[in-house]
UniProtKB/TrEMBL annotation:
Entry keyword set: FAD, Flavoprotein, NAD, Nucleotide-binding, Oxidoreductase
Organism of derivation: Photobacterium ganghwense
Name of the featured protein: Dihydrolipoamide dehydrogenase
Residue ranges annotated for the FAD/NAD(P)-binding domain, each copy included: 7-326
E.C. no: 1.8.1.4
Main enzyme class: oxidoreductase
Top-level taxonomy: Bacteria, Pseudomonadati, Pseudomonadota, Gammaproteobacteria, Vibrionales
Pfam families: Pyr_redox_2 (PF07992), Pyr_redox_dim (PF02852)
GO molecular function, one term: dihydrolipoyl dehydrogenase (NADH) activity
Cofactor note text: Binds 1 FAD per subunit.
Amino acid sequence: MKTLNVDVAVIGGGTAGLGAYRAAKAHTPHVVMIEGGPYGTTCARVGCMPSKLLIAAAESVHQIEKAPAFGVYPQGEIHINGREVMDRVKRERDRFVGFVLEGVDEIPAEDKIAGYAKFIDNNTLQVDDHTLIHAERIVIATGSRPAYPAVWNELGDRLIINDDVFEWDDLPQSVAVFGPGVIGLELGQALKRLGVEVVMFGLGGQVGPLTDPAIMAYADKAFNEEFYLDADVKVESMKRIGDSVEIQYLNKEGVLDTITVDYVLAATGRRPNVDKLAIENTDLELDQRGVPMADYYTLQTSVASIFIAGDASNQLPLLHEAADQGRIAGDNAGRFPDIRAGLRRSKISAVFSDPQIAMVGETYREISNRLGNCGCFETGEVSFENQGRSRVMLRNKGMLHVYGEHGTGRFLGAEMMGPNAEHLAHLLAWAHQNKMTIAQMLDMPFYHPVIEEGVRTALRDLNAKLHLGPEMIKHCLDCGPGC
């Protein structure tokens, strides 16, 4: 067996792993990256990029279907060629993956170790049966994978995960989506708009990542206008029959219903890939889910020489977070023992549904747990249903809640469903990271007519409730019509 002695070993070659490798390499030449699967990021291969390609196709269909409301009538029946849709998705997906692989190709071959790593002790890794690595410091960046009940494996190839969707050559007739989270909502709605019959099931009533009950209720209603969604279903049975799956469930009226679908899409969450690392051979302290605990700002675990980053850390499974965490963990592994706190940006997340869902800063649940008992925060709100620019574009669905602190008037966070929520969330995240007050945000310029005027309305409502500004005026003169 080959033996290597290195300063830093990075386990994983995805977004976090690549970031950690490059950051560590800035401090020492003796860095290796271990990868057992294909190089490239979850985002490029099976996540954010291919899903957005599918969503873009679905949006084009939706725009044609909406055209008559503007007095524009497309000629003839809309024809969706599933093979052409999926061909473009895969071609563009492969192009994005290619960009990532170009960066991987620039890494020296001797720094890339192929295989799956397991801990022998705090500073020793064995890669398959061919290499033993003694590392002064180690970064765990092994990513995550879809999680679903093991019994579902009885469905065979009728059970799919999001990875499988992007390998289809054509679109199916019908899909049952389990899990109305980010992945389930994005793919389920896109498939529905592309002509696939879609039903969506969840447990516990959760819709998307939302925690604000009012926004979540609005989202549940909005999605149900487009496809069947029961966010707290009771499934009686699910079994494969030939090349289909029969699902028996209690519908919303409590009556037993039976449907037959081509596929069951498991979008019930993801789990960190740490369970096959033989972590029991280390002194790492684990949380209740078996994931190594780490400092939020340094990504250092309970073992000083081991760091963790990206989806494996189970903190915020988002690409920009994985990239940030990878850089922080790799930098600290490289400069060890001179550990430094890294920049952790304000939280921002988005669901690319229609209307979009977005969250910024502290969630409603987090703020309620922290300040709710003392009544120390307020919620400002706006509906996009009568907001001027939203109505002009016939995209007038959704609502926005912004949260502010009594006394300080500081902006704490926001949850929303609405048009261009991805852009509104960025503006609010920048304000949150700069620790702005509601008054300071209201001093910023707002053009007319734009969707962002809805943000101003919500901020004015919040400022009034915090007793830091005037009461809301139904038709303010400086807003223009429909703000």
